[in-house]
Amino acid sequence: MTVVAAAFLIALAVWLWTSPDAATLRLARLTHHDDEPRPPSLKALFARPSRSRRADAWRRASIELCHAMTAELSAGRTPGEALSRALDAVDLPDPGGLRPVSAAARDGGDVSAALLRAAPEEGGEGLRRLAACWDVSVTVGAGLSALVDRVAATLRASQAHRQDVAAQLAGPRTTARMLAVLPALGLLMAAALGMRPLTFLLGGLPGLLCLAAGISLDACGLWWTHRMATKAVNP
User: Fold this and answer.
1) Ranges for the Type II secretion system protein GspF domain (predicted)?
2) C-alpha angle 187/192/195, rounded to 5°?
3) How far apart are CA 48 and CA 64, in angstroms?
4) pTM of the model
5) Which of 161, 165, 155, 164 is nearest to 232 (CA)?
6) Backbone phi, then psi, for 209, in 5-degree steps?
């Protein structure tokens, strides 16, 4: 009975640990972006990490910034004034990080370079595109309002695509979590049948090797599923 109770507690803990939260089931925005993805921890494989939430916040703020800047430009503001006022009006994830941009816009500095420096690695696509628009406007005299409006439309389309892919991947991600729990359920069933699997797994070298191999394969399966989901969002 002790072995059965221990196996049951292990299975319950693994289930609670890997079960999806309500927000993920509704619509988890997959924004994880790495040039060379690194194997994450088991718990972070399908949990929505804080840096992914921060990237989402930057993308939303970039869209709002473009809209606010377009409105200011349409009202007759100069590009520097429009950008400065837009930065003050938008709720940014890191307002302090964009203070150099606001200062450059007010003082006639290199706004494009300031935007590129302030853009975060993840979620900073909008700021980098805004910097490119600024360069084009300064270099060839193109209308900044039209360029910024086009950037906003592109960012909205990308955000909608990520949300659509997230909705389609919610089922496979949940299935992968369930499959990761099956080994623990197998231990529970074996213990219920009197096979004493924990005694074998923890009682000698062959058992420890089997345990290590099983955990490694389970982790590799989770990582590979996570990698495929990431590639689906960022092809």
Assistant:
1) 66-189
2) 70
3) 23
4) 0.61
5) 165
6) -65, -40
State both tokens at 130. 């805004």
Determine if residue 122 is left, alpha or beta; phi over 0 gives left, psi from -120 to 50 gives alpha, anything else beta.
beta
| Residues 116 and 131 sit within 8 Å (Cβ to Cβ) | yes
Query: In the numeric block, which tokens belong to residue 147?
Result: 């360029």
Task: Give the number of other Cβ atoms within 10 Å of residue 213's Cβ.
Answer: 10
- Contact partners, residue 117, CB within 8 Å, separation at least 6: 100
Residue 111 identity (one-letter amino acid): V
C-alpha pair distances (Å), 221 with each of 32, 138, 174? 18, 50, 13
3-state helix, strand, coil in the chain (%, to 5): 75, 0, 25
CB 86 within 8 A of CB 72: yes
Please give the span between the terminal C-alpha atoms of the chain, in angstroms, as a whole number. Answer: 50
195: Cα within 13 Å, side-chain hemisphere = 12
Amino acid at 14: V
* Size of the chain, expressed as the number of residues it contains: 235
Phi, psi of 22 (to 5 degrees): -65, -40
